[in-house]
Design a protein that fits this description.
Length: 238
């Protein structure tokens, strides 16, 4: 990617919050492309550590084989190792982290001893807000082609012929995970788990909220305005 003001920018850490279906993945990809910074996924980090047999990965494997959740301490340790790598020097997008108040507190302490472009930068915490009914429609409306994997949405991106793939002509299917009863439980679990984290950042005046029900390009514009705050470009010294 050729060097530009955007790809040279020191943006610091970015944490995207939002329920399943809010569009975090879409926005994260756009930010990665614009700034050339990595997307740090806790799921990827966990799988990588387990696969490579690192000390933390071995501990995590034991916990996972018991069917238990990996502790905040283990997750934070693996995240710290990943954030210390060179590609994170200008910033990164945190995907799936923090998920708890304990992880957010750890992140604050970790960042207190780190600099980006010779300055300390707190995370830009962005909550993509989408109403419950809209989330339900986005998630339960998903259909896929069993032949080519193409994804449709019966509400917002339907095929030309109902229930039939435009490319393969195969009948579209709905995953079990996209059934309304399953989605409803996922959304309730997200709210239960994440509300304390949202309140943690809101109390500190550090939570930025954007309207995720707008078209994707308008959501991106809102997010970029928050990221491109003053004095974050590379070479800035004030």
């Amino acid at each position: 990617m050729p060097a530009t003001a955007a790809t040279d920018a020191v943006v610091g850490p970015i944490a995207l919050l939002g329920a399943p279906g809010a569009g975090k993945g879409t926005q994260a990809k756009l930010i990665v492309h614009r700034y050339g910074i990595p997307q740090i996924s806790t799921g990827d980090i966990l799988r990588d550590n387990v696969a490579r047999g690192t000390e933390l990965g071995k501990q995590a494997r034991v916990v996972m084989e018991r069917g238990e959740l990996v502790s905040d301490q283990l997750v934070s340790g693996m995240v710290a190792d990943r954030l210390a790598q060179k590609d994170c020097e200008r910033g990164y997008i945190l995907d799936g982290f923090p998920r708890t108040v304990a992880q957010a507190e750890w992140l604050d302490k970790y960042l207190d001893s780190r600099t980006f472009g010779r300055r300390k930068l707190p995370p830009v915490v962005i909550n993509i807000q989408v109403g419950y009914n809209q989330l339900l429609q986005r998630l339960t409306g998903r259909r896929s082609c069993p032949a080519c994997g193409r994804i449709y949405n019966v509400y917002s991106q339907p095929p030309r012929v109902d229930h039939v793939c435009d490319v393969e002509g195969a009948s579209l299917i709905q995953r079990k995970d996209d059934k309304e009863e399953v989605i409803s439980e996922r959304l309730k679990e997200y709210e239960r788990r994440t509300l304390p984290l949202v309140e943690y950042y809101r109390r500190q005046g550090r939570l930025h909220e954007v309207n995720g029900e707008l078209p994707a390009n308008q959501v991106t514009e809102q997010i970029l305005k928050l990221i491109e705050r003053p004095a974050v470009q590379a070479g800035s010294n004030d």
